Structure formats: C-alpha cells, structure tokens
Amino acid sequence: MSARPLTITAAAALQALVAAAIAAAGCYAFAGTVLGRAADAGSAVPLAVFALLAAAAAGYCAWGLFLLRDWARTPAVLTHVFVLVVAYYMFTSGQYAVSAVMAAAAAAGLALVFAPSTTATLFPDGGARHGGSDAGE
C-alpha cells in the first residue's frame, strides 16, 4: 500500500472523535442511571452498555482507517450516515446548533472516506478483488 494521505489521517481522527462522543454519551447515560436520574433504569443501563460497545466499534474502525485497512471504510460510512440520522432528529427537536455540528462532522467524514486519494490508497487495485470493474484487464 502507498503512503498515508492526509484525507485518511483526517478521516481516522474524525472517526475517533465520533467514537469519543458516543462513549461520552454512554458514560453520561450510565452516570445518570447510577445517580438515580434515569426515568427507567431498566432501559437506561442497556442503552449505556450499547453506546459503549458502539464507541468501541467506532474506535476500532478509526484504528483500521489509520492502519490503511480497506475493510474500515464501510463501517466508517455507516457511522457517519447514522450521525446524519441523529442530526436530523436533533434538528426536529429544536436543537439546531447540535444538529448543525453533527451534520457538518458527518458530511466531512463522508467526504474524507470517499475522497479520491483515500480510495486510491485503500483500494490500489481499483477494487477489482472486491467485485469492482475489471475493464482495464
């Protein structure tokens, strides 16, 4: 594989930032449950555990991007699509600033993982081994 372009480093950093935000949300939910502020502890604890597991998965994906692993692009794309969905619901609930930041981060993440230099580095053979076009052969 070729040298790591700036787009992959930035995509990995942004993916790690998303993972940290998910972990922070999970810790916040868990702390609220422990302190007795959760309306329903029976659903708050599994939600917190799910958020922490999702943060670990997103962090692992960030590490995969940083190590130039081609498999890491698909979960990174899915992560940013999910962030866009959450941004939409934040917008509809009147939290416009949070929604704008989330949407901008997701759009930047998608642009970084689909950048031509990222694609060329992660898939140097043009994706042929992954079912891509063999037109040049």
From TrEMBL:
Residue ranges of the TM segments: 47-68, 75-91, 97-115
This protein's record includes keyword Transmembrane helix: yes
Keywords tagged on the record: Membrane, Transmembrane, Transmembrane helix
Protein name: Small-conductance mechanosensitive channel
Organism, scientific name: Streptomonospora salina
